[in-house]
Fold this protein.
Amino acid sequence: MNHSFTTLAESYLHRLDSVAIPLSPDWGIRWYGLAYAAGFVVAWLLIRWMARTGRSLIPERAVGDLMMYSVVGVLVGGRLGYALFYKPELFLTFSASPPWWELLAIHRGGMASHGGILGVVIAMCVFARKNQLPALHLVDMVAIAAPPGLFFGRLANFINGELWGKRLSDAMQIDPPWWSVKYPEEIYLGTVDVSSVATSVGGETTLHTQIVESLRSADPVVTEALIGQLTAWWPSQLFQAMTDGPILMAILIAVWWRPRRPGIVGGWFLVGYGTLRIVTEVVRQPDDGVALFFGMQRGQLLSVGMIILGVVMIALCSRRSVQAIGGLWRSSQNKTDFKTKHTG
């Protein structure tokens, strides 16, 4: 029987396929793309509900347009942010196959959540100006709708086998806990002695590729010989899925349980996301080729900036003489009054 994963030596052996629906030998619908689609659908449903029940100033007929702006902001901002913050060589890398420019190869992964957040904020400012709506209120709306998408995105990171966590301590490597994860792709790092199975695998690809494929297909001989040598890692992607998703969502629901002045929910999103990101980055490996600053990873430094900005937003927005709106526990009845008195 072919299982989607195997648990050996008390660790989870990662064998998940990044392609959800194969369409050809070279193309298919990936979990990464489905994760983004699911996040946008959930956000659309939540924002439409808030518009329909009077919890938002956004007209229900404009929710679809708002989501289109959000999609563009996430994709453009997330990809540009990834290239700027982590892989600037993408701007200068070209190939002979589609999409020809590596900056456009989003299907292969490589999105920065900090860049996506900035992209959405810019998109909301443009949408607000075009539709004469308070920009800070739109930022609040996308902030409370964002955690499900962040949750799905981190799950897709885990399925893709990317953004590994840090190596468990030597003491824990002896008897790895059940929640740790081992990756067959570690074979490519050259840290595993594969001589014992070199003659038991065959194929047209290189030896290391054959061994990785054997591990991923749960070949009993190869798995038994090598599983003990594989390193156990922290499942940082799953930790960040929980913090960026359910935990952050719970914080924002608590904040917006009653009406708030525009911008306060968005400020709490920045503070909450930034704080949780700093905490979970402790068990995540630094990105390749990205130097540490003051002992902190790039994601942590960016999160410090988010926290500072969030605190400033909360302080300034709390002092604004504008009417509080929203409130998840009941619908607001002040949509017309607010739009009459305030334009941004």
